[in-house]
User: What shape does this take?
Amino acid sequence: MGHNNQSNVVTDNLILRNAKREDIASLVDLAARSFRDAFASENAKQDIDAYIGSAFTLEKFQEEFDTPNNIFLVACSGASDNPVGYAKLRLSSRNSSVASESCMELERLYADSAVIGRGIGAALMRECIERATSLDCEVIWLGVWEKNDRAIRFYERHGFTTVGKHTFTLGTDIQNDLIMCKSLEK
Assistant: This one.
């Protein structure tokens, strides 16, 4: 996996590190559970199931893990090495609403519902911003469902602003995502 030569970061009994191949099965499970917890109450079960069945498979994650422009970060809490949160970054990922050529996409930032509110998302976000800065990116950007007010507020607290929209297909449901970005200090 390219661009993952950073060392572990330890803060308040939380360890942030690069994902390892042996983390993939745990990440697939964490992604599916987190996605379902976050979006099942607002969406049709068949649309959630269809998305999870295509986006969060062992094969898909292995392929993404082996793609050089992808960086997977995991957060582990306490003595356990099992991920309780993770982020996926994509170097050189472009969006027409983002005005920079030198950018990184924060494609996913998930935490287990049992640990939401304990600072894991914030720690992962800080590490994502650090990684993007250390790789000389001018901008970090993301897409977030326009109805996900909690996530939008989280991203705004971390300096992201809305710069556009794009569509996101969840099963058979076409939804709108806000495109948010943050300029990075060099």
